[in-house]
Structures are given as C-alpha cells and as structure tokens.
Amino acid sequence: MRHLISLDDLDAHDIAGLLSTADHMAEVLGRPQPKVPALRTKTVCSLFFEDSTRTRLSFETAAKRLSAETLTFTASSSSVNKGESLRDTVETLAAMGVDVFVVRHKTAGLPLSMTNWCDARVVNAGDGAHQHPTQGLLDAFTLSRALGRGNDLSGVRVAIVGDIRHSRVARSTLRALHVLGASITLVAPASLLPAAFVGADSVPDGWPVGVSHSLDEVIGEIDVLYLLRMQRERMDNAFISSPGEYSAHFGLTDGRLSRMRKGSVLMHPGPMNHGIEVAVDLDSLADHGVANLITQQVTNGIAVRMSVLFTLFGAGSEAIDGQ
Amino acid sequence: MRHLISLDDLDAHDIAGLLSTADHMAEVLGRPQPKVPALRTKTVCSLFFEDSTRTRLSFETAAKRLSAETLTFTASSSSVNKGESLRDTVETLAAMGVDVFVVRHKTAGLPLSMTNWCDARVVNAGDGAHQHPTQGLLDAFTLSRALGRGNDLSGVRVAIVGDIRHSRVARSTLRALHVLGASITLVAPASLLPAAFVGADSVPDGWPVGVSHSLDEVIGEIDVLYLLRMQRERMDNAFISSPGEYSAHFGLTDGRLSRMRKGSVLMHPGPMNHGIEVAVDLDSLADHGVANLITQQVTNGIAVRMSVLFTLFGAGSEAIDGQ
Amino acid sequence: MRHLISLDDLDAHDIAGLLSTADHMAEVLGRPQPKVPALRTKTVCSLFFEDSTRTRLSFETAAKRLSAETLTFTASSSSVNKGESLRDTVETLAAMGVDVFVVRHKTAGLPLSMTNWCDARVVNAGDGAHQHPTQGLLDAFTLSRALGRGNDLSGVRVAIVGDIRHSRVARSTLRALHVLGASITLVAPASLLPAAFVGADSVPDGWPVGVSHSLDEVIGEIDVLYLLRMQRERMDNAFISSPGEYSAHFGLTDGRLSRMRKGSVLMHPGPMNHGIEVAVDLDSLADHGVANLITQQVTNGIAVRMSVLFTLFGAGSEAIDGQ
C-alpha cells in the first residue's frame, strides 16, 4: 500500500491486514512506554485545510507513537490564502523532506491528485463528501473487537442513520463494514440519501445496502446503531425543518433505546450533537444492555492510524517489537 | 497530589515539598543537557481557551524537559466554536491517551469540573478570577530563593498592589506566600478589592491580610512590592478614570522607588504595562538597592511547573537524576 | 558567528565556510536516519510576526534534524497584539531558556535590536526590505553545487529580475552571489529599483551590479535567471498596471525561454506567481537545456539552515558524525 486514498481501493484481505496490525499497535499503546521506533526516520506532515483538531491530533499522536517527526500545516497558518497554489505548497513541503502527507480538504479527489504531485505518501483524512478511510477502518476495528468477531462481521446487522448524502464517514464506514461481511441498512429521509437514490425504484448499483426511511422500523432488528453527525448548517434546507424534528424522526430517543436489542451497540464518529441525533443520557445505555462504543472509537483511532502509517512503509512487524 | 486545581487545597507541607522538588528541577535546568526522562511515558495536553502564549510555552517547555510528549489544543485551532461541547473535547482527548491536561479557561471552576470528566490529571493554568496555582508557587519559589529563606517566609512583608478583585494571580500568590509565613497587605482602591470587602468594616473572614488604599502609606515598610497587571479593558470603569491616574496612585514611580527599603524586591506576573503599574526605568532599581525579580519569576516558572507535573505522578526523585 | 543578521556582516571566507558545513548537512539528510545530536541541548524558538509557514517549517525542520528542542511563537498565537511589547516577549522567552531566536518581522533592523535584549543567539529570517540571509546562502549553495563550482562563482552571469526595491531576498542573494564572484545584473523598471538608483546617472556606490531595464536585452547572455516574486499588493502602483503587463516585460515567457542559453538555470525564492513572473510551463525548460533549480532551493534550505544553526554554537564538525 503506497497511499491510502479510499477504502474502495482495498479488498477484504487488505482491510483485515490493517486491522490485524492495529491489534499490534493497540498492544504497543498498552505498554508503560507506549512508543516504538518504527518510523523514526520518517516525517509526517498534517495538511489540514478544514478545521478538525481531533482528527489531526489523532494522526499526529499516532505518528509520534511510531517515533516519526511531525509537521503541522493548517490553512489558517499558511500562505495558501494569499495565492500560493496548493500544488506549490505540497511540492515545497515534499522538497523539505516530508515522507507522508495526511491531508484533509473540502475538495473530493484532492488527496488522489496529490499522489501525482510528489513522491511522498498520501493519507486521505477526509476529502469533501468522498472518503475518510481511517474512520472506516477504526469503525470496523472497534466494532469487530467489541463483538469479539476477529476480522469477520458476517451476519452483523448495522443501521447507518442520518445525512448519508453529505457524509464521507458513511461512505468509508459502509465500505469497511460491508467488506468484512456486515449487512447494512441506510436510514434517512429520501432527501438525505445519496443522489443516485433520488427517484430510483430500487437500490442503485454499487450500493450493497438496504434502505429505510424509518428508524422505528429497524431499531429493534439491528446489532449496531451508527448515528451520523447532523450538520446544523444544513438544517435550513426544506427536508429537515428543525433539530427537534430531526431528533423526533432519526435521533436516538428514550423510546427507541428501550426497543434496542440487548447486546447491541451504539457508534458515532463525533463530535456529537447532544439532544439531536443523540437525545438520551448516554449513561442510561447500560441499563438497556446497549454498549456505547464511542470512546473506544476515539481510542482505537490512534492504533488504526499507527497501523496505516506503519503499513505505508511496508515495514516488517519486528520493527514494532521493542523500543 | 492527583490534580492541581487551587492552592487552597495544599498546606504548608505540600507547598514546601513542591518548592523543594523545584530546586531539583532548577538544578536539572542548569545541566548541559537540561532534560530528564522522568515523564517519557506521559502525554501532556495544553488546553487553552484564553490566549496566553507565555504560560502555555512555559508549561510545554517544562513538559518537554521531563521528556513528556506534548499536545497543544487552543480554542482558535479547535472545533469548540462550532458547537462541540467542552466536555466532549476533554473526553475525546483523554480517549486518545492524554495523561495530564493543563487548562486555562475564563470560567472559574472549569478545571475542577474536568476532574470528573475523565481519568487524566488536571493542572489549572488559570480559571477566571479564581486561581492560577503555578503562578503562586513560582512566586513563592522565586521570593524565598531570592531572600535565601528556604521554605519559610515568616516575617517577610509583602504588598500586593492593583486589581485584586479580578486577579487570579493575587489569590494564588497570596495563598502561597501566606502559607509560608509572609505578612501580606493588599493595596488597592476600594473598588478593586474583592467583593467580600465592599462595605465591610474590617477584613472579611478567610482573608489573612491587611488592607490599604494608599501605596504611599506602605511603600517604605515592605520587603516585597508585588505589582499586578492593570487590565486596560477595565479602565473605563468609574473607579480608575485613566492609566495616568492609576499610575499616580498605584504605580511604581521614581518618587516611590526612592522610598523603597534597600534589600527589598520588585515582582510582577507579566506582561507588564510600562508607564502604568511600572512607571520607572527598571534599570534604575539597582541604584536604590531594590532587586528586580521579574525575569527570575519567568525562569523559575519552568522549574516549578516541572515540579508540579513530576509530583502529579508521584515518581521517586531518583527518576530525575540521569538522562 | 554569534548571530546571523545580515550577509553584509560576512566575508567570502565566512560564506564559504557556511556552505561547506551545509555540504556535511546535506550528507546527513541523505542518511537513512537524517538526524544528528549536535544541538540536542539547545532550544530554538521561531518568532514569526509575518506569516511564512514555508520558511518557519524549513527552520524548524533544520532544528529538529540537529535534535534541538523547538518552540513556535507566531503573532497570531500571541498576546503581542494586546499591548505586550516585543521586547518583553523576547525577554520572557529568553528567560524560559531559549538559546536561539529565528525571527521574521516587517521592521528592518528588529533582529539586530534583539541581540541587545537578551543573551540568546538571533537568526534573521527576514526583516522588512532589509535582509533574508539564509535565503542568500541557500541560493549561493544551490547555484554553486548545481554548476559544480565549489564555493567559487567567478564569471557566472546572473540576472536578478523584478521588484528589487522591496525585496530582502534580492539584497541577500545579491550579496552572497557577489561575494563568491558572480557578475550580477539587476533587471527592473526604474520604479522597482532601490531608492538609491532613482535619478542616478550611474550605479550608486555599494551596489556591485549592472542594471538593465530590459529582460530581453540580457536574457540571451546569462547563466542564471533569478526571478523575484511579484507582490500582487504592489500592482496597483502606477509603474506596473497589471500582472499581464508585468509578465510581458519582466516575466519568463516562451519567447524568452527559447532565447536562454543551454546550460543556464532558473531560480525563484517562492512562492511563485504562475502566469506572472513565470509564464511558461516549467516542464518545458528541459527541452531548452535550461535547468530548473527551484525545488533544489527548497531542499537545500534545510541543509543551509542546519549549517547556520550549527555554526552559531561553534561546535566541532565531529558532532555531526553520528547519531
């Protein structure tokens, strides 16, 4: 693996390999000194043109745990606004010795373009509504480890709920869970389904999913409730008139929680809108036998990103065995 | 000590212990390689919701000298403005493996709340007008070492001058110096004394201080002149009509400098308003036998913050003996 | 060398020494582990009051490759805007243990002033229209190594083209190339030549250069075409009415490229305005036997800045031989 642009580029074997390496990394993170020298000769540069401190710090922490040098380049700190082209910026940073770019940009396809601009490796940390592959991997890792399923999710029933249309998380997570065998239902109003679904009589080609417009219909039949973040800035569109209405139709309410299966789990990519997609007290999940995996998703993000950075350089696993 | 929220939580023994550990740290800082491996397994995250580069860099330098990993999270770089709750931010960072948060926030009590949100340690780096405990410790350390007094300041007469009401520095420094035995007089117009003093006939309970409204009355009788920073943004209040008027009543002027005792010292938490609270040429202090401890306060801030971070983890002092 | 403020302070021997040390550093950067412990006891603080992420990251990467601790202080992250004086900031950071300041500021002469404010070393990373000495050094290094000329550029004909008047790059690069023996022609409209040239009948004293107002006149006779960045914000002045007009007179166009000598080279300090000073496809340079050194300039910036930081501390060269 030279770059990580989209989970569509990876098959089940590739994804299982990354998750297995993440197991090693999780073991490293449990050591008294949670650090290995694997990438001590490498420089990892975060190139974030959209604000996301949590994702950036997760990648940078992962890089540091592998002993890589880290550089941070954010749009606000840069001269990009002053007319320097993005390509010049990338070429300049590569010429300074960057080995891996971790890039987030609002333009779908930008990370892929970058692979043609320089010899550095590129990891997509979110491009427009396209992909956020490490999110998909960390979700697959978190879910499969929580269920004790190894790298096989066959038969696991997942509902991904919310604004599928604008969500790169939905695309990447769906891909990762599907490839490992999970059965996925998208739950959203028609207006928040991807454009390919509009006016279609059946599920479009390339979407290995079921579709429902009613969370109530599926809530009692699933093993995994994956709630997407509702973007408030999209609330003014006609399809959802208010946060309250969204919550009433697609949020996790006390009523819905009481109908969830014992042993089922809740996931969310964060940051959460309390009172909108999550309208229950999270502490009450345990009373219903529902596990909250949200914190584990964050924690596992470090191990999974370590696995990705490590795998880019094709290093043998012996390199993570000692400090 | 699991957290450092307020110096009110510490007694004389605790404070003396922190200052003695700071002596060790100062010795480390004087070595050719000013670094020890004591916290190399720990991650320290600065969480600054108020701008204070000097305090943040002081803590981060202290953490690096102890070989800790450092993460920086500032309000401007974060998604906090976009509706992510502070608690979610803290939980997320803790889930990524943060061991200590160093937090500054305008809300008094926020650092204490954080101790309930996650398992990480919390160091208060300034919360509203409440406390700034490491400032109190570094002031006590600087003063006692400059006077050659060990951890005993009994009999030392200190005037803390200026906007006591809004100053967390005043509260923390007063506490630290008082606990070590110093006699403290607050010098301020009535309107800049804490609310408890308003309309009171005598000094309120819990304030082990004398009070004066006249710097001229006390200037010749003190060993330590501690000037607070006058916040220009509070100048439009009725009590102080202009910087010039403030300086005339409560600033260090040439006239007052000439009345200071030989062997007395000047302290200030920085950054200083030249021409307001300090209206003399600082180079002229030496001519009057007055020592300027301001630079030592900054320098000692590193050693004292190393001591605090080190003490949080209860490590044995042998851990700072070698690289 | 205690500070690096201006190349006017250095003679040919000094500059040659820095370039030879940069050769060692370039060798270090080619190692599997591109890092030496030379400055592991030092703290390097970037103090940038003008936005320049590329220069800042180049210096910080150089410092990290020498194992120095790095601190970043940028105007936007600081309290400088709130009335803290620059001198107080510098004194405060120095008191925290900074060994070297790398400073960029719009005021010519500020880095020199800083040398009087504290004991730390100072490296000028660009002050107003005055100097940008490491740019001059990296240009001299890149050119002499590309031409295989060692530290001797005698007989090499260089045209520096564009806004000489406002360019600190022009001043520093001119100095470095001239000292090593190159023959330099400034090419600019009269209004973009330095003030000393205005109304002068001949080249003013202290400017060891030829002057031309026509790039077409010199383009076929030079070994080095050094294009300066045209600042768009100066475009509204009378002398250059539009980017198109600038490009027509002083840009590298296809017509001019076809007249360049085989074996000649193109240089630019970056970031480039495509379509203005560079109005050709850079990939077409090779077809005309013209080498594009722009990426090498960026890459060599790391080695040259390592050389400067290393030389400030007068360390013996053995310190860079091993990890």
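qc> The first helix of chain C runs from residue 12 to 29.
qc> done
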